[in-house]
Write a structure and sequence with these properties.
It is built from 13 helices and 52 strands. By secondary structure, it is mainly beta.
Length: 863
């Protein structure tokens, strides 16, 4: 017997197994409409009706039971529906009597069983049971229960048969439509699909691991504060297009962005389409459907087949939605000048098929090391070897993988990019990678795959790649290993393509699946960088330094016994470094143990504690410097490089984060032409700041130091980050003041004009985020007169807690990834106090990033 049926018996006070025995002949079961006063019910899309005095006594995902008898005596009739994968295990086959089959009007066939059981000292139970011959939902069979407890069966036969006749069952093989969001929608849930919600009766999410996307059915409550959905969570400037969707008039809003959740072999962006229906439900609620996924999602038969059967059930009292309930400027109703587009299911646009598989394109890597033999391996054949075992690799979806004895090449089938690894002659001039580097290109330092590399990049001069079938230009990048295989055999890796490829997930995944098996007898290359001009043999540049740590802001495990050099003190100014014989860069003594370093080639400048950090030798390409402490446990890098790929700042930042060295970053911040990443691995903290100068030069500063000395380094790192940048910015920076004294920090008293001004200013962005008026329960409020910091919990004006489930942060709060705290940074301007930054629901010490970003003292934020 199932746990659900046992639960029903316990609710009714009957602790026995039912052994079927009902004298009933099999019959045809015709559908009939219920009396008007009967109550409609539904279980997993199966609709039925019961008399008005019947009560629902049990419900779960596996079944529902309604009882029409006396709850005190536990006697009377009951009706129920159950789902069971193995229905024969629900009943005792030795005492079950079969009456043949019954067939419903839709054609669904059932086996009919009967039983009678009287437990010791218990109530006699008479029952009839119908079990679907075939599964109805996945592998589950439908079981219909008709039972009478402690009373004779005949007086209740008529009502049980009438309930049975109201059961509206679909045809065999057709999934029932399950009501959703309090009846606003009805939809099937096919095998493989899962549903979930973070706001009951307002959002229902459909997901399937086999497809690259998801969709939501949404019901926007009319009682919402209009400000809560004024933007409908769509990017600014998104325009709507009138369509017909699910048989109703709607307006669709569409936008695309780089996907963080879904990935395909083409590095496609994810597209969101939000359909808002013009007709509201009877109570004024607005219905909408939101789809988000990659291009394959919108044409996947599993998606289109499911959406084919979704129904919007507006009801007879539905009415046109008022403009106040819809997005501002929504082009709806009679104002349309053009005929409405029929959206079909998921899109109002005709799907454009992908171009034919790209073949024989003379792009980057193929020209550098033409691979002649195709590798017949598949992704299921396991790791393969190339270059005489130097490389272990896996085939990649959407790529043609080719090998020669000295090369391994991945070619994107759609022509958007390539990657080639080669050794020997394929690397050297006149026919290898080295010959492809344009004259005058300067190299930079890269690290990865347990090797140091010299990297060169350059743009194409003509279309060499394909972007959605159109010939376009792009970039090439070649990395020369700084060590050679035995016998002076060079190794290099070259890749190139459009920016969507070079900064995309597919290339990162290919690299992550590569394994370099460096032999023990590798040796220094006598021909640096395979002979490329202007060799980069010791430069410091690129998108990362090998094996840099990742971060946890408050490390719990630090070895206090590990010896470290004396911690540096906050900047006051430093002695110059020892005089160098020939030194292209400049070092200016600032006094107090600090020096101002300026790179001669790129003008990158920083003030650093020279009494603590020693200067290492300048690389031959002069792109920057490495500085290390006497004990070697702390070091920092300062360098510049040309913006080889020309990526937008956000893509550059994301590309940094995909590097193995920066996986697990826990703090990031960005502004106009700069960004910061920070993290911790083991007991070492790293901090990385990148500035994109207008002249096309990228300036980078990166420091690594023991987490045990975090408090000692905080002020030092803040000072270094503030003084770091291109020469022009350094000249504009205020002069260093020895031993700066912080301004007096105060907490404004209650009922003062200052406190009121700060609260009023802070409320503006918080109320905009929440879509409601708030007051603050303040935990921290501090100001030095020029800046102010507020840490508080927002509350309703009456002091009651906010219902986060009614805000746009409902999902984050439900998942526990957000707190109920706000942090607000304000500045005193000529126009009064203004919010310059804020964060909703931080789960860590978010204001640490404001120290560097705005040059503030930690004293403003904590005592």
């Amino acid at each position: 017997m199932s746990r659900f049926l046992n639960a029903v018996l316990l609710i009714l006070g009957i602790g026995a197994v039912i052994n079927p025995l009902w004298a009933e002949e099999a019959r045809q079961i015709a559908f009939s409409a219920p009396p008007q006063d009967w109550v409609e019910g539904n279980f997993r899309g199966y609709a039925f009706a019961t008399p008005p005095n019947w009560q629902e006594v049990a419900r779960s995902d596996d079944g529902v039971t309604l009882f029409g008898g006396d709850m005190e005596t536990k006697t009377g009739p009951a009706f129920g529906l159950m789902l069971a994968r193995n229905p024969t295990q629900v009943f005792n086959p030795e005492t079950t009597v079969s009456l043949g089959e019954a067939v419903f009007a839709g054609g669904l066939r059932f086996e009919v069983l009967k039983s009678t059981e009287t437990p010791d000292g218990g109530i006699t139970v008479e029952g009839g049971f119908l079990i679907s011959v075939d599964p109805v939902l996945g592998e589950d069979h439908l079981i219909i229960l008709q039972t009478v407890y402690g009373q004779p069966l005949p007086p209740h036969r008529a009502v049980l048969d009438q309930i049975l006749s109201t059961l509206d069952l679909p045809a065999p093989g057709v999934l029932p439509l399950e009501p959703a969001l309090a009846g606003a929608f009805a939809a099937p849930v096919p095998e493989g699909w899962e549903t979930g919600s973070y706001m009951d009766n307002e959002v229902l999410i459909f997901e399937n691991r086999a497809v690259q996307g998801a969709f939501k059915l949404m019901r926007h409550t009319a009682a919402y504060d209009p400000g809560m959905r004024s933007d409908w969570y769509m990017p600014d400037g998104t325009l709507g297009q009138p369509v017909s969707f699910l048989g109703q008039n709607a307006v669709v809003y569409e936008w695309s962005k780089r996907s963080k959740k879904y990935h395909d072999a083409a590095d496609s962006d994810e597209t969101t389409r939000l359909y808002i229906f013009e007709t509201c439900l009877a109570n004024g609620d607005v219905a909408s459907v939101e789809l988000t996924g990659l291009p394959s999602f919108y044409t996947d038969p599993q998606v289109t087949g499911l959406l084919d059967r979704v129904e919007l059930r507006l009801g007879p009292d539905a009415a046109p939605c008022p403009a106040s309930a819809l997005p501002v400027g929504m082009p709806a109703g009679a104002s349309l000048a053009e005929p409405r587009v029929n959206s079909g299911l998921t899109t109002h646009l005709d799907h454009v098929a992908a171009p034919d598989t790209w073949q024989s394109q003379g792009i980057g890597g193929a020209e550098a090391a033409p691979p002649h033999t195709a590798d017949a391996a598949t992704a299921d054949s396991g790791p393969l070897a190339a270059l005489d075992g130097l490389i272990g690799y896996l085939p990649a979806e959407g790529f043609v993988t080719m090998t020669t004895p000295d090369s391994l090449t991945y070619l994107a089938e759609d022509g958007r990019g390539y990657l080639t690894i080669a050794k020997g002659a394929a690397v050297l001039a006149p026919d290898g990678f080295a010959a492809l580097v344009p004259a005058g290109r300067l190299g930079s330092f890269e690290a990865g795959f347990s090797m140091e590399w010299s990297a060169y990049g350059w743009p194409t001069t003509q279309p060499e790649f394909l972007d959605n079938g159109a010939p376009v230009g792009g970039w090439h990048m070649v990395h020369f290993a700084r060590s050679c295989l035995a016998g002076q055999i060079p190794v290099a890796m070259m890749f190139g393509g459009i920016s969507r490829f070079t900064g995309g997930n597919a290339l990162t995944q290919i690299k992550n699946n590569l394994v370099f098996n460096w032999p023990a007898d590798i040796e220094a290359c006598s021909l640096e960088n395979a002979g490329v001009g202007n060799p980069a043999t010791g430069g410091l540049a690129g998108s990362g330094v090998a094996e840099t740590p990742t971060y946890s802001p408050d490390p719990t495990t630090v070895d206090p016994k590990r010896a470290t050099a004396p911690a540096p003190k906050p900047p006051a100014a430093p002695p110059p470094p020892p005089a160098a014989e020939i030194e292209p860069d400049s070092f200016t003594d600032q006094g107090g143990g600090y020096a101002l370093y300026q790179n001669a080639r790129f003008g990158t400048t920083i003030s650093y504690p020279s009494a603590y950090f020693n200067t290492e030798q300048s690389p031959e390409n002069g792109d920057g410097r490495r500085f290390s402490s006497a004990d070697g446990q702390s070091y920092f890098l300062v360098f510049g490089q040309h913006d080889a790929f020309g990526l937008p700042q956000d893509e550059m930042m994301q590309q940094d984060k995909t590097q193995q060295a920066y996986q697990g970053v826990s703090y990031e911040k960005s502004g106009k032409n700069w960004y910061v990443l920070s993290g911790l691995t083991g007991d070492t903290i790293f901090y990385r700041k990148v500035i994109l100068a207008p002249d096309g030069i990228i300036h980078a500063f990166e420091i690594h130091y023991p987490a045990a000395q975090k408090s000692a380094f905080d002020a030092v790192v803040t000072h270094m980050a503030q003084t770091f940048g291109p020469l022009a910015a350094a000249k504009l920076a205020p002069p260093l003041v020895p031993n700066p004294q912080p301004a007096k920090i105060t907490t404004p008293a209650r009922n003062t004009d200052l406190r009121a001004a700060l609260m009023d200013a802070a409320r503006i962005p918080i109320e905009a985020d929440l879509g409601m008026e708030v007051i603050f329960v303040v935990s921290v409020l501090r100001t030095d007169g020029a800046w102010a910091y507020l840490q508080a919990k927002p509350r309703n004006p009456d002091g009651s807690p906010i219902r986060w489930s009614k805000t746009r942060f409902a999902a984050e709060m439900e998942k526990g990834v957000m707190s109920d705290v706000v942090m607000v940074l304000l500045q005193n301007t000529s126009a009064g106090w203004q919010v310059v930054d804020h964060i909703m629901g931080p789960t860590d010490v978010y204001w640490l990033g404001w120290l560097d970003a705005y040059g503030l003292s930690e004293a403003l934020f904590s005592e």
